[in-house]
Q: What sequence folds into this?
């Protein structure tokens, strides 16, 4: 792993408290017995997404401490978890397909997953490329998490909240591109990620109602 990214796993650990904050009010304290919006499909998506986040955190930490065999084993397990994750998105999309504005998020999340993760696997022997595509995968999960935090705990509202959330991700990627380019590192995977998340932001923006 590149020296500049050796603590990436510790940064990814922030996903845990962020996810707890994001889903505490809308999911963690809700009972399926008194909330008809929470069913088996939602639980399935939540469990698989949690497994995926744990995987995202574990893999760079295993590399950090040179646990290469465990890293490769989890990499193989990730194929199964990824398949389950893709399946878990389908009911979410099916429920919102009649309302394009509501279906943008699950459709774009799934589409970007289907682009970045296969590219990461294709380039698993090119560590610098593989890592950057996995960072792009992680950013997919940051969007919905931050959006819920802003919705539950701030007064930015349903218009500015999504704009801030999905507008920040292209800015983060732009910063990473500038940083890598300045230091002579391979920033090209970030360019593809920037294009994907910019399209995501534009779709969110044009379908928001002030």
A:
């Amino acid at each position: 792993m590149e020296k500049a990214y050796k603590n990436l796993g510790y940064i990814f650990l922030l996903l845990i408290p962020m996810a707890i904050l994001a889903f505490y009010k809308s999911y963690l304290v809700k009972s399926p017995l008194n909330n008809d919006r929470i069913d088996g499909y939602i639980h399935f998506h939540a469990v698989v997404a949690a497994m995926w986040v744990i995987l995202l955190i574990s893999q760079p930490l295993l590399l950090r401490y040179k646990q290469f065999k465990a890293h490769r084993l989890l990499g193989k397990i990730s194929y199964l978890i990824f398949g389950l994750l893709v399946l878990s998105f389908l009911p979410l999309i099916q429920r919102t397909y009649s309302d394009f504005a509501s279906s943008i998020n699950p459709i774009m999340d799934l589409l970007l997953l289907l682009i970045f993760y296969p590219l990461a696997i294709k380039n698993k022997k090119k560590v610098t490329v593989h890592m950057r595509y996995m960072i792009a995968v992680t950013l997919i999960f940051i969007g919905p998490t931050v959006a819920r935090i802003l919705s539950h705990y701030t007064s930015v509202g349903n218009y500015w909240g999504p704009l801030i959330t999905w507008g920040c991700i292209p800015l983060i990627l732009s910063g990473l591109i500038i940083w890598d380019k300045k230091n002579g590192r391979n920033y090209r995977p970030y360019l593809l990620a920037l294009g994907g998340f910019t399209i995501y932001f534009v779709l969110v923006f044009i379908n928001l109602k002030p």
